[in-house]
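[job 4471] stage=fold_predict status=RUNNING
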Amino acid sequence: MLLQAALNGDRTTAAHPALPVSVEQLARDAAACVAGGARAIHLHPRDLLGRERLDAEVVDEIVLEVRDACAVPVGVSTGAWIEPDLERRLELVRAWRAPDYASVNLSEPGATAIMRALIGAGLGVEAGIASVEDAERLAASGWGGQVTRILVEPARVSAADAIERVEEIHTALDRLGLAAPRLQHGDGEAAWVLLTDAIRRGLDTRIGLEDTLDEPDGERTTNNEALVRAARALGAGDRVRSS
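[job 4471] inference complete, writing structure tokens
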């Protein structure tokens, strides 16, 4: 099982003072998370003013420095909120060379075109599936067999409803014959519920300040490394599971 560290997302340091923004902070956090047991990194590159960016000169530089610091695959976001204009977003993504993979939200307009652009640039795709409808969009796209992994990631779901929601998504993925490796995670109050459920299912998972600011016991976390170590303590990561 893979444990991925999601370092920052669209949050700012107003959410948590330890949230990494600069390339130096991202590289430091990535290395610490790998030392704690993570084997992949997901981050949202920022410019010198702390703004999320998709420009190749920002994305490639940050990914190269972070990967050099942590020596594991590093992926980024293609979120439509970063660059709302689809044609401009496609132009920026096509210029990338450094990321190992990028996440694509199937719920966003133009997701199929973004996947095509990434694959055309020789980059991996993490297909973000938040609903049964997203699973159907991935199947209809024709790219389902070429993605690096499928992210089962219902957004803003309550802890009480989280397991039912992912069960619906997994059932749909199975029905549609989408057999790429799956990484299951949640955010907010569902983050630890869905991480624990991913461990039970034997799936890849992720944790980090993008997804939650709290430890499993509800206490505010110290940083990304502490979240990774807490996930490892629960059984996430590359330990061999007993039969």
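[job 4471] summary: The domain at 3-234 is CATH 3.20.20.70 (TIM Barrel).
[job 4471] exit 0
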